[in-house]
Amino acid sequence: MVRRKRSIGWNILLGAASLVIIGWTLFPVFWMLSTSFKNPTAVYANPPEIIPKEPSAAGYQRIATGTVGYTPISRFFLNSGIVALATVIIAIIAALLASYALSRLKFAFRKGVMIGVLVTQMFPLVVLLTPLYILYFRIHLINTYQGLVLAFTAFTLPFCIWMLKSFADTIPQELDEAAIIDGCTRMGILRQILIPLLVPGIIATGVFSFLDAWNNLLFPMTLTTDISMKTLPPGMIMAFGGEFKHDWGGMMAASVLVALPVVLILVFLQRYLVEGLTAGSIKE
Amino acid sequence: MFLFKRKLYNSYRIDTNNKLAAALLGPSILFVGIISLYPLIYSVYLSLFNYQLTRPDKIRFAPLNNIRKLLQDELFFRSLLNTLIFTVITVAAGLILGMVMALVLEELPKRFSKLRGVLIMPWVIPGIVVGYLFMYIFDTNVGIVNYIFLSLGLIQKRLPWLMRDNLAMASVIIANVWNQAPFYMLMFTAAMKGIPESIREAAYAEGTSRWNEFFQVTLPHIKGVVVITSLLQIIRNFNNFPIIFTMTGGGPAHATTTSVLYIYKVAFDQFDMGYASLIGIFWVIILMILSVIYIRLLNKDY
Fold it and tell me: One GO BP annotation here (chain B) (predicted)?
């Protein structure tokens, strides 16, 4: 492989550009972390303390013991966890079935379904809220986990189906044929051949549906009215709209805690995440 | 999402099986039907009504009422313009930054490859957290931006970033670009990996400069991915909500009220469900047109 020779000037330019990119990307994250360990007066220090001189976990303590009305803030974490995990499980099962059909079967309206899957990803969520609120009100799904899981699952499903189908398409169909000759049923193919080979795809899909559910603000903001049923995003808005307003340390502590699960997922499952996004575009 | 033509093993399918397909697709169609399709149809119906939640006695069928309101509503047109400004600048800046990130990382020696994983971080951080973080960073009194600008002598006194029209829009855009740039980086990196080494070597052997190599080799090769990623991001930014909502709530004085925020305000602050539905339908039509273009591009052989 022939590579360009790098002049010293080019190396300096490259190094400088790298530093700017790293600073731009990571400084806000660092700043969030740093502020979360500052006590309320240290936040106002001039010049700002880049690393807190007297680190304190008081911000985290306020989040751990804080309440919005009678609802402890920790309850929002519980709600988010329950709803996000349920969404992941249901979305993966539904998406596996659907992607199997789209990847392996011929059927009427196949093209229509494929286009439907793509188009529904683009729906502006905010447009759905009004009628959805009225519907949920009538069928008593307001303020329920079921209602939130239903909404999150439906919202994340099109993308999950699309992604799993792309993964399934890379598994040679000869495997299916061999299995059928050996007397395997259609569902047997899905269970015994596709699912084991689809594990990376399933992980990637799970990660994305989790991110979708964990990050969603609009659904829980409108489809729950009872504070104790709020998930983290609307819960944070309620917490920092009221008594904690301008409690920067507490706000950043809460931000760190809300971002933490997602960042951990990125650290441990990064390979799948990147692979899922750009699925199989490179290697063949 | 899958932007690249891949080798498909399944160019043919074993058999036609409508019943099994229906059973397999059933759960997904049910979910999406309840949460997306039914509300969409219902909001077309709602848009024909004078439907204010606060005045249940006044609900009546008045199909032209909302349309008349829309045509006279200055805020509606303002929100359209805001959406356009916000989206165009956010996508353009994100794209350029993402491209620079991808190119720089591509040039760095192999041992820095872990860096790419670290740089994705802003993209997974929840919108609400990004919103609060940048609200803090741009705060008039404690914000680090004001401190840095003051120290460098770029400004004479602290600027109220989130409380002045253009500055608020700029702040919101910067927060979004920070959040989205890594996504472009990922897409472009993947696309660049597909450029055959031989072409690069040929360009080098012919003495092509780096600048020309980028415009004559790299860019033409990844053009398809650039177009599709941008279009996808345009659609997503039209729907962008949490970051703007937390940072400015659409203010000051509607300076950052994009269409999505406007629909939300009409529906949940003014409880004018009929009118909110009509604006929503208008947006769905625009997004559907963009989606069709997107799908067309996806099918094209890039």
Answer: transmembrane transport
